[in-house]
Design goal:
This protein has a single domain, classed as ph1033 like domains (ph1033 like fold, Roll), CATH 3.10.590. It contains 5 helices and 6 strands, in the order βαβαβββααβα. It has a 6-stranded mixed beta sheet with strand order 2-5-4-3-1-6. A hairpin with a 5-residue loop joins strand 3 and strand 4. The longest helix has 10 residues. The two termini are 13 Å apart. The relative contact order is 0.24. The structure holds a DNA duplex.
Length: 147
DNA sequence: GCCAACGTTGGC
DNA sequence: GCCAACGTTGGC
C-alpha cells in the first residue's frame, strides 16, 4: 500500500512538536474555522523555551487535553517566537500557527501509552508541559495511527 | 471531584 | 540557597 499524505509530512528543520490545548479553551475546530492563530498564554519556562526554538514550517501535533486527551490534527508554524501580546511582563512569547490537516481518527493518550515506541515520549513523561518536542519517528508514528 | 506531579513564591 | 506552602495542570 502506498503511504498516504499523512505519513509523509515532513519539515525542513526536522523539528517536530506537540502542542496542547483544552478544547474548551481553544479547539482544533476553532483553528480550522479561523485558519490561523497565535499560540498565546504559555506561562511556563520550559514550554516557552520550546516555543523559542520553533522555526517557520515546523510541524506540530495539536493535542486536546483534559476532556478529550487525543491528538486531533497537525498544524504548522508560520512565524517564530515574538512577545505575547497578552503578557505585561515581556517575559513570554507566542508563535503563529495554521492548520495543516485533521487526523482521520484521533490518536488517544491511551493509545499512545499502549504503544511501546511512544511510552516514553515527553507527552507521557512530562504530562504538565504544554509544548513538547517530538522526534520525526514519534511524529510519523502518531500520524500513521491517526490515518 | 480528587489528587499526583510539578512549578513558583517567599520566609528564613 | 533551602525548603515549606501554595497554586496549577491534567490524568483518572
Amino acid at each position: 500500500m502506498a503511504p498516504n499524505l499523512s505519513t509523509t509530512l515532513t519539515c525542513p528543520s526536522k523539528q517536530y512538536w506537540l502542542m496542547k490545548s483544552e478544547p474548551e479553551a481553544y479547539s482544533w475546530q476553532r483553528l480550522l474555522t479561523e485558519g490561523k492563530t497565535l499560540w498565546e498564554g504559555v506561562r511556563n519556562y520550559q514550554a516557552r523555551n520550546n516555543l523559542k526554538q520553533m522555526q517557520v514550517n515546523d510541524l506540530a501535533l495539536f493535542y486536546h487535553s483534559v476532556s478529550e486527551k487525543a491528538v486531533v490534527g497537525v498544524c504548522k508554524i508560520t512565524q517564530t517566537a515574538y512577545p505575547d501580546p497578552t503578557d505585561e511582563t515581556g517575559k513570554w512569547v507566542v508563535v503563529n500557527v495554521i492548520p495543516v490537516e485533521t487526523l482521520a481518527v484521533p490518536v488517544t493518550l491511551a493509545a499512545i501509552k499502549a504503544t511501546e515506541a511512544l511510552a516514553e515520549i515527553a507527552l507521557v513523561r512530562q504530562s504538565r508541559l504544554s509544548v513538547v518536542p517530538l522526534t520525526q519517528a514519534e511524529f510519523d508514528l502518531i500520524l500513521s495511527m491517526g490515518a
